[in-house]
Amino acid sequence: MEGKLPWEAPAAAAPSEAQAQVPETMVQGLAADDSAEDRESTTLMPVWQPPPAAPAASEVAQTMAIDSKTQPMAGAVAGTGRQAELTIESGPDGGHAHRIGDNALRLGRSPDNDVILRDPATSGHHARLERRGDQFWIVDLGSTNGTLVNGEPIQEKELNHGDRVTIGQNAVHFSVIGT
Description:
Distance between the termini: 87 Å
Mean pLDDT: 75
Helix content: under 10%
Order of helices and strands: HEEEEEEEEEEEE
Largest sheet: 7 strands, mixed
Structural class: mainly beta
């Protein structure tokens, strides 16, 4: 190494264009006798930049207050057609209500569902409620304990106002809102 320290660049080697743009303290010097296989590549890190500014208050959508027990489904917009409501009457999640609009609503124990049921008899992805035209349908997603509508096991069934759906230990009342 001829008296040079490992972090010092060899005297004969001219810095490359990329190295010339990087502060000298960030470039690891290489000994003249190092082979390409023995060297580790140098990674250039981008300079930290502050996060973008928050949007102006006029650009932020207005938020409306809702009943704490009624949770609108993401994407449900009032006035886009018939809507329905699932009211959990009894079971571990009794007392909660959920609105159904244009988008499908998935029910189950897994945290990625639209309606999370905290019931060990409910499958991770238990059932899906969807609107087809002006009708609402419930589809069992291959749940272990099945989905019942008015006491009968179903794979897929059209729901009518007043139907009772059983998902695990939860008794759910289905009602249509609007015409």
